[in-house]
């Protein structure tokens, strides 16, 4: 801070800076609040969806048990062979207060169903039910995944924003303030120095005047002693006393 | 051609079978997006699979059974990527316990503490 | 050499009776969950289990559930083990024609195993893992099984696979029949690659049923009558199920209906030939219902399905119920081989039930736990009248 020359101009510059920092602080604080509101919303939604997930998934698991009862052991067949994903997630982006949040969307590629005729000789309908149950569960999970990524991203964004707010509040603004204080102090100091200087000059002048007066008085007294009357009226104009024109001729 | 990302799944047989029936399965000559964790599946295998899933850019979401995730806590704790998202899901034999879910722990921290 | 079979059969039936008589004993142990169970003995009466489970459920703490789950799994394993051991023992002691008859029973599982191995090969799975998943009743020479996945996944590889391995297996003839019928489509590899595994399997099962029926017919007597009827019903069940389950799949497209779906219907049964030819044309459930209306023995099953499972029963349950009834009757009959088939199938049903119960407990589905088809149950609808005598 000492490298800032304490000038009026710098004072203006720093006053500007302080103003900007305060505005920024206000805006960021608003952003942080907005994020926090969203964040709480997501947190609640996650808590709700996650608890709903438990019952969804248990019904899905049970549908599989039912299918197994009806169709025999088909599970190992499902995981064999090469396959192409029929369900994928599209990644979109949502924007909350300038924070980009990834959003997953469920979509079907239109590829043919793998193992379409599973359970052909029995239990096919039950297996169909398993498909629907798990698809529903999957859709919920994808929603949940979006919420969760948003949650994590927002969490991160909020941390950054809060850090910025705190930095502005506790570091940047005080720093500018200190510079401003310093400049003010220095400027005051300069003013005081000037004042003192003037005072000194004046007191010196006064002393000189007094000295002169003393000399003059002494001279006058001497002259008076010698019978010369010195005109008192010319006291103010010392030189006038020596003006040859005005003075009477003095002959030593 | 590959638009959209895959959903990967690591879990017990019922979980994997179900989601495969729902159509998420994708197996090519050299990779596959699911792992069935059985009684005798080694934790190292699960961990390396999980790691490789997180490093693939064609996977958007990783579903993992909670009881499997419980053995992978050390990995999940330090996992900070947004994508792929790791989602803990219940399994047939183990009812879902929100207490253990690393996301839920954070959620509860905010709902309980911050709300 | 029928005497041996007869003795064994008597022993089985005696065992079954003995188990049923132990009812009161089971009532005691199911009521006290802490006492150690006799997991080795087999109990055919699930009503008792249900009662016991209800008690346990009122105290559904996790440890009790786990304990019961483990227990059921142990029982399940033992039951399965028992089935396999008993069957294999029977097979080693059997002489012709029973031996062939028993082999026929295993072919069904063999088809299942071959399909599993084939599909596993396509995804490059470890052979040991695959063999471990195979049904023990459907095992064939291990060297043959191990050689299946060694073939390359190329047209040439499939050709070799078929010519050197599949033909050698007992189910080889069914494969060649299937390939002959599909010959119009080109190479073996194309057929194996393009046709869905499930459809190949259904075709093989169809040939198996036809072949089995022929063999049974050649035996004559009570076996031909009772076993023949079991197979006929089996064939009809398959035909109805295939039709019903094809709705919504490519198999239901008009072109496929005639060329592919119809080929899966076995050429025997009460529906054959008039019914199956009608089934070949149906395109939705209503039409299927109208066809089945013409066949009294199936219309009741169909009505359960059409009612939308209001009492929680699906068409599969209805078929199971029918099967169990018929199988029980066959099992209790004398001097025919059908009893062995019935024995295997009933055991299977029992295992299925046990899986159901343990899954229900595991997943805490209290309302669903009764929804299975009990074997040798006094409460079975067709036995309701004789309930008092049974006790």
From TrEMBL, chain A:
It comes from Cyclostephanos tholiformis. GO terms for biological process: monoatomic ion transport. Keywords: Ion transport, Transport. Belongs to the V-ATPase D subunit family. This is Vacuolar ATP synthase subunit D. The keyword Lipid metabolism does not apply. InterPro entries: V_ATPase_D.
From TrEMBL, chain B:
Keywords: Hydrogen ion transport, Ion transport, Transport. GO terms for biological process: proton transmembrane transport. InterPro entries: ATPase_V1-cplx_f_g_su, ATPase_V1-cplx_fsu_euk, ATPase_V1_fsu_sf. The keyword Ion transport applies. Belongs to the V-ATPase F subunit family. NCBIfam families: V_ATP_synt_F (TIGR01101). This is V-type proton ATPase subunit F. It comes from Cyclostephanos tholiformis. The lineage of its organism: Eukaryota, Sar, Stramenopiles, Ochrophyta, Bacillariophyta.
UniProtKB/TrEMBL annotation, chain C:
PANTHER family: VACUOLAR ATP SYNTHASE SUBUNIT AC39. It holds the Pfam family vATP-synt_AC39. SUPFAM superfamilies: V-type ATP synthase subunit C. This is V-type proton ATPase subunit. It comes from Cyclostephanos tholiformis.
């Amino acid at each position: 801070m000492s490298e800032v020359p304490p000038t009026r101009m710098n004072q203006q510059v720093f006053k500007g800076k302080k103003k900007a920092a305060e505005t920024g602080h206000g805006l960021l604080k608003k952003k942080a609040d907005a994020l926090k509101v969203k964040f709480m919303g997501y947190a609640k939604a996650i808590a709700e969806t996650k608890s709903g997930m438990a019952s969804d998934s248990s019904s899905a698991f049970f549908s599989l048990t039912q299918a197994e009862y009806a169709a025999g052991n088909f599970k190992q067949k499902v995981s064999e062979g090469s396959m192409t994903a029929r369900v994928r997630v599209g990644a979109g982006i949502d924007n909350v207060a300038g924070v980009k949040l990834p959003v997953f969307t469920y979509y079907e590629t239109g590829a043919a169903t793998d193992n379409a005729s599973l359970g052909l000789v029995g239990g096919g309908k039950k297996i169909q039910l398993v498909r629907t149950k798990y698809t529903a569960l999957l859709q919920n999970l994808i929603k949940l995944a979006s919420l969760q990524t948003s949650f994590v991203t927002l969490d991160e964004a909020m941390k950054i924003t809060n850090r910025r707010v705190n930095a502005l509040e506790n570091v940047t603004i005080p720093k500018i303030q200190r510079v401003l204080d310093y400049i003010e102090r220095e400027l005051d100091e300069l003013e005081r120095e000037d004042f003192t200087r003037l005072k000194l000059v004046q007191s010196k002048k006064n002393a000189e005047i007094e000295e002169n007066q003393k000399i003059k008085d002494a001279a006058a007294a001497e002259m008076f002693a010698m019978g010369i009357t010195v005109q008192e009226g010319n006291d103010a104009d010392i030189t006038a006393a020596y003006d040859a024109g005005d003075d009477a001729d003095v002959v030593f | 051609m590959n638009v959209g990302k895959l959903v990967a799944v690591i879990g017990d047989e019922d979980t994997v079978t179900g989601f495969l029936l729902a159509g998420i399965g994708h197996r090519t000559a050299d990779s596959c997006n699911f792992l069935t964790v059985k009684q005798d599946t080694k934790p190292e295998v699960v961990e390396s699979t999980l790691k490789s899933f997180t490093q693939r850019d064609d996977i958007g979401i990783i579903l993992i059974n909670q009881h499997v995730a419980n053995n992978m806590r050390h990995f999940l704790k330090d996992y900070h990527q947004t994508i792929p998202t790791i989602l803990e899901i219940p399994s047939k034999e183990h009812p879902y316990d929100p207490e253990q879910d690393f996301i839920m722990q954070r959620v509860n921290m905010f709902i309980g503490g911050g709300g | 050499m029928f005497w041996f079979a007869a003795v064994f059969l008597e022993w089985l039936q005696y065992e079954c009776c003995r188990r049923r008589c132990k009812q009161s004993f089971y009532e005691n142990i199911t009521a006290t969950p802490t006492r150690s169970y006799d997991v080795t003995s087999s109990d055919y009466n699930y009503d008792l289990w249900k009662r016991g489970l209800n008690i346990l459920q009122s105290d559904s703490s996790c440890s009790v559930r786990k304990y019961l789950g483990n227990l059921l799994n142990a029982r399940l394993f033992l039951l399965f083990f028992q089935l396999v051991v008993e069957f294999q023992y029977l097979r080693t002691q059997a002489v012709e024609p029973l031996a062939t008859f028993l082999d026929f029973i295993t072919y069904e599982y063999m088809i299942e195993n071959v399909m599993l191995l084939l599909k596993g090969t396509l995804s490059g799975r470890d052979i040991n893992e695959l063999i471990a998943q195979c049904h023990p009743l459907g095992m064939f020479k291990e060297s043959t099984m191990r050689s299946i996945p060694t073939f390359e996944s190329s047209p040439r590889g499939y050709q070799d696979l078929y010519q050197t391995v599949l033909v050698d297996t007992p189910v080889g003839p069914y494969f060649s029949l299937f390939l002959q019928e599909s010959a119009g489509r080109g190479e073996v590899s194309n057929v194996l690659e393009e046709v869905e595994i499930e459809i190949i399997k259904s075709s093989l099962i169809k040939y198996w049923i036809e072949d089995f029926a022929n063999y049974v017919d050649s035996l004559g007597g009570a076996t031909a009558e009772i076993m023949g009827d079991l197979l006929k019903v089996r064939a009809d069940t398959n035909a109805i199920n295939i039709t019903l389950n094809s709705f919504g799949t490519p198999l239901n497209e008009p072109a496929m209906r005639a060329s592919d779906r119809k080929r899966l219907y076995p050429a025997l049964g009460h529906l054959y030939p008039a019914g199956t030819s009608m089934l070949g044309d149906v395109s939705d459930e209503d039409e299927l219902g109208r066809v089945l209306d013409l066949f009294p023995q199936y219309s009741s099953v169909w009505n359960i399905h059409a009612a939308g499972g209001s009492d929680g029963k699906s068409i599969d349950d209805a078929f199971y119920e029918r099967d169990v009834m018929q199988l029980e009757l066959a099992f209790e009959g004398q001097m025919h081989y059908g009893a062995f088939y019935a024995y295997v199938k009933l055991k299977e049903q029992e295992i299925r039930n046990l899986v159901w119960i343990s899954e229900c407990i595991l997943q805490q589905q209290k309302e669903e736990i009764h929804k299975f088809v009990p074997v040798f149950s006094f409460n079975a609808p067709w036995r309701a009248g004789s309930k008092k005598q049974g006790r």
